[in-house]
Specification:
Length: 333
């Protein structure tokens, strides 16, 4: 089992290495891959030291699985090349998510759709993953009609440049415009813009929540609107979700459904101040759900609060769970 991590020196790449070790993913060869400026440098993984290689050398090594976390342009150019030599690519970028010929996978929801013919598999957006995981068992039972979503997303979701901007601002260091990840300060601020604005005045992140959720839940009829906000939290995305169902329900049953769903932890006891927060989700692989309550303004509707570590289940953990599913179900040629 040869596994390559493309973009290994990046923020998500480092977490992929951590999760590979923690989940004890079985491999015989580990191939760390990065850009030309990092080739030849050493990286420590699983108690050993490895030399970083470039994409061309990694391609020649023909890994069984390549986890890509190096941006959309790299994925568009190189994923098909790796697929052509028999590698299964699990891609963290947005490059392939909405491609009708590529599957968008959250293992707990739709990994059973994967086959040996799937050589490029898309990993959903971080904010989509945690939400869809919480919604899938509810949609299966009741049918979701409409979602109104507000996200509160960690600056770590933007990458190392955003982390540097936050740390410098927190330390009182002036950040030059060329080194900013955001147009405005992120320290002690909330920026109602995640990614670029589109022609409809929604951001790309907001439309990912709309389009990816429909694809994952396999239901184009769900009406979805979203507002995504970047906040000064070091790790962990939070989401307030208003869920309108297709029929009446008991909130206790919603809680029970979520309590028994794989990958979800319900923290929901207002009397003891028990609810999810990014502070407690950091470095954990689960999705946390709480603040479950009826929407008293509209029938068949409730509110929920969903929190997860965006670098874990929102990125690294989900990709490795996909890889493990492929191995466990003998889908690697």
């Amino acid at each position: 089992m040869k596994i390559a991590v493309v973009g290994v020196t990046g923020l998500v790449g480092g977490v992929i290495n951590e999760v590979l070790e923690e989940l004890q993913f079985s491999y015989t060869h580990y191939i760390p891959v990065a850009s030309d400026r990092s080739v030849g440098k050493n990286i420590h993984f699983d108690g050993k030291t490895y030399s970083i290689v470039g994409l061309e050398q990694a391609l020649q090594l023909a890994p069984d699985i390549a986890i890509f976390s190096a941006g959309g342009d790299i994925s568009l150019e190189w994923a098909p090349k790796f697929a052509a030599v028999g590698t299964v690519v699990i891609d963290n970028s947005s490059a392939w998510r909405m491609d009708p010929n590529k599957k968008l996978i959250i293992p707990e929801i739709n990994a059973d759709t994967l086959t040996k013919e799937d050589k490029i598999i898309a990993n959903p957006n971080c904010s989509t993953i945690q939400m869809a995981l919480a919604l899938a068992p509810i949609h299966k039972q009741y049918g979701i009609k409409r979602l109104v979503i507000s996200t509160y997303q960690s600056f770590t979701g933007t990458g190392a440049k955003a982390v540097n901007q936050y740390n410098n601002e927190k330390s009182g260091i002036t950040v030059p415009d060329t080194e900013r990840a955001y147009h405005y300060p992120i320290f002690e601020n909330a920026i109602p813009q995640c990614d670029v604005f589109l022609d409809n005045d929604y951001t790309k992140e907001e439309m990912k929540l709309v389009n990816e959720t429909k694809k994952i839940l396999d239901d184009e009829s769900i009406r979805i609107t979203a507002t995504a906000v970047r906040i000064p939290v070091d790790g962990g995305h939070s989401e307030s979700i208003n869920v309108e169902l297709g029929k009446s329900f008991d909130i206790k049953e919603i809680r029970n459904i979520l309590s028994t769903a794989k990958g979800i932890v319900v923290l929901d006891d207002p009397e003891t101040f028990k609810y999810p927060m990014p502070l407690y989700s950091k470095n954990k692989n689960e999705v946390f759900v709480g603040r479950l309550r009826y929407d008293e303004s509209q029938e068949n509707t409730f509110n929920m609060w969903v929190v997860a570590d965006n670098l874990r289940k929102g990125a690294a953990t989900n990709t490795i769970q996909i890889a493990q599913y492929l191995v466990d179900n003998h889908l690697i040629s």
